[in-house]
Each structure stands twice: as structure tokens, then as C-alpha cells.
Design brief:
Elements (H helix, E strand, L loop, with lengths): L2 H10 L5 E4 L6 H8 L3 E6 L2 H13 L4 E5 L10 E5 L12 H6 L6 E7 L13 E10 L2 E8 L1
Parallel strand pairs: 1-2, 2-3, 4-5
Antiparallel strand pairs: 5-7, 6-7
Helix pairs in contact: 1-2
Length: about 150
């Protein structure tokens, strides 16, 4: 995720003190949120990505709490920003997104996903305040949803 896009996503979250990223990967969103003065908490199921996120946050002087954790088991985060996983190494066919959003309690979220992914139907009980589409390269686009 490009740092400018990560920063824009954090900014779209609005006023809050703590930002979660339940699919933190190598920590790009955590870094941008930390650099804007937020307390940051990140989770990822991949221990290698968690190690990378810790190194990257330390390099940028961001004090982050980062844990190895399955995002589908986290059911409450007041404010979160995430870029949902996609690609060849991602196992989305096993209902990952359905499990993640099922019963999830939050006040506001900014969610990025691949342009071909449909996550709006998973949050029917919530309001999508804004939806943006960004071209990435060739035929790949990124959708960003602001949800309350």
C-alpha cells in the first residue's frame, strides 16, 4: 500500500485516539497512523509479517502494539483502517471476509480492497459513507470504503 494512500485512509477515519489495523502486514497503515499521533495496534496471522511490521514501525519511530492474531477472532475495534488481503498467497475462498465482518462491532472503519472484491454485502447493517476507486496498474483497481 502506497504511503500516501495509507495516510489518506487514516485521515478518512476522522478524530480518534487509537487506530487498529487487523491485517497489518508489514505495517504501512500503522506507520502512517502513528506519524499522525494516533496510538496504533496491529494484528496479522503471519509471524513474518508481524516481525516486519515491528521493524518498520521502530525504524520510523512509531510506538506500536503488534501481535500475531487471527483477525477473524477480533470482534470489537472502535476505529480501524485496513487493506483487506488479496493475491496469490491469500486464502479468501475459505470465507475470510465473511468471518471477519460477522458480528464485528466498530464505530467507523476505512477498508481498502481489490476492485474486484465485493465487501459491501458483508456490512449490510452498516452505512457506507463514501466509496472511492483508485487505479493501481493495468486492470487492477483499489476500492476504499468509509463505513459507519
Amino acid at each position: 500500500l502506497h504511503p500516501r494512500v495509507a495516510r489518506a485512509m487514516v485521515n478518512l477515519l476522522g478524530e480518534c485516539s487509537e487506530v487498529f489495523d487487523p491485517f497489518c502486514g508489514s505495517g504501512g497503515i500503522l506507520i502512517e497512523a502513528g506519524l499522525t499521533g494516533h496510538e496504533v495496534v496491529g494484528f496479522d496471522i503471519d509471524k513474518i509479517q508481524v516481525a516486519r511490521a515491528k521493524i518498520n514501525c521502530k525504524h520510523f519511530g512509531v510506538d506500536a502494539r503488534i501481535e500475531i492474531k487471527d483477525a477473524t477472532l477480533v470482534k470489537e475495534m472502535d476505529y480501524f483502517v485496513c487493506d483487506l488481503p488479496y493475491g496469490l498467497n491469500t486464502k479468501t475462498s475459505d470465507g475470510l471476509f465473511e468471518k471477519f465482518f460477522d458480528g464485528l462491532k466498530f464505530k467507523r472503519a476505512v477498508v481498502g480492497c481489490a476492485g474486484f472484491q465485493d465487501v459491501a454485502h458483508l456490512i449490510e447493517d452498516r452505512e457506507v459513507l463514501y466509496e472511492f476507486t483508485l487505479p493501481l496498474h493495468k486492470n487492477l483497481k483499489k476500492k476504499i470504503l468509509v463505513i459507519e
